[in-house]
Amino acid sequence: MSDLDSRYLTVPQVARELQMDVSAVYKMCKAHELPSVRFGKSVRIPRLAYERYLEQLEGGGPEPPNPNVTDAQGGRESFRETTGRDPEVWIEEWRSGSIPDTPENTRMAIRALALRDVAQARDREAATAR
Questions:
Q1: What is the count of structural domains for the chain?
Q2: How far, in Å, CA of 42 to CA of 38, rounded?
Q3: CA distance 25 to 27
Q4: Which pTM value belongs to this model?
Q5: 74 exposure class (CB count in 10 Å sphere: 0-12, 13-18, 19+)
């Protein structure tokens, strides 16, 4: 098993473990209910984020933060203050290996992806409204 295989799960692996349909897991990822990252066209679920997600569900812990709320509360500015980078820059540097792949950096990458997706959705809505 490669190092990448031990850090990331595929959607079919998660679907088998949860005894769900693969399409349902993809929908959870798209809705940001289940943390995920894209590598090209492939969707992967960071193992640590998945384990935390299950712990929250099993323990009745708080729901993961809604990225729309996070962005509305200045999430991008907060991210910049914390990392010194825009979310899009963080993602590219993390994917390229310039930023080490640690559990904390994986959490930051997931946060950056959520912020990026919110911004892209807002841009699409604005373009449609014109």
A1: 2
A2: 6
A3: 5
A4: 0.45
A5: exposed
pLDDT tens-digit readout, 30-58:
888 888 888 888 899 998 888 888 887 77
Range(s) of the domain holding residue 71: 65-130
Is the pLDDT confidence value at 69 over 60? Answer: no
In DSSP notation, 76-88 reads HHHHHHHHSS-HH
Residue linked to tokens 């943390």 = 35
Q: What is the pLDDT of residue 64?
A: 52
Of 27, 44, 63, the position where a domain reaches its end is: 63
3-state secondary structure of 42: strand
Based on the domain organization, do 94 and 50 belong to the same domain?
no
Residue 64 exposed, middle or buried by CB count within 10 Å (0-12, 13-18, 19+)? middle
**HSE on the CB side for 67, CA within 13 Å?**
25
69 and 130 in a single domain? The answer is: yes
94 and 56 in one domain? no
Give the helix, strand, coil percentages of the chain, each rounded to 5: 65, 10, 25
